[in-house]
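chain below, 223 aa
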Amino acid sequence: MKNIILFLLLTLNVKAQKDSTRTVLSIFYGQKYLSHKTFEGKLNDVYKMKFGAPISYIGIGESGSIPINRSKLKRFGHIMYTQIIPQDVKVSDTITVKISGFNFALTYFGFDVFPNNKHVDFFISSGFNTGRLRFFGNSFLNQKNPYFSPKISITPRILFGDFCFQMNIDYEVDVSKKNWRRTNFSNSDKINLPQTSNTGLNVLFGIGIVIKDGKNKKETVEE
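prediction:
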């Protein structure tokens, strides 16, 4: 599965489209579903998919057309910053910590399946997620897990005038080290935690406003 995803990321380099994509600024709330059980299932995974359980995100992002070499041809992409909502995680029968962290997302090589539809967009793009998970609230478990994950992203959007409702559905493959490390200001002895991969599914819901309406433009583009 990992090899298939990496192959798709390398080959999703589709023909550029005309500048017909509306740029939208949105706020998001969503979930990460890890591809495997972690900490005896205390972190959300694809096997239980419990909405609201750790890991939950809230953030802001922009999606729309990105120019190519100063031409009028564009590709779809998005940029997003999300913060992990602090929640309790029971890492053993007797130890509970809080999880937090952040994620930065960027895609570029994307296209719209419905480029001429005025009310519906359906984008497919590739890019990456990067960020970290962090445990805090216990002096022996103040640890972090940085990651870098190439990803495939699907972004359906429904637009009503200047308002937009959208989803971001990503599948990412963590290619970084899986070990937890002490945070920079932790002076306590490190307790070894099980390796954690951030490979998995992200599902985010967003509401936003149109800040650039490319679909109302009538331009002639020479390819």
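The beta strands are 17-18, 23-34, 56-67, 73-90, 96-112, 120-136, 143-160, 163-172, 181-182, 200-212. The chain is about 5% helix and 55% strand.
thats it, cya
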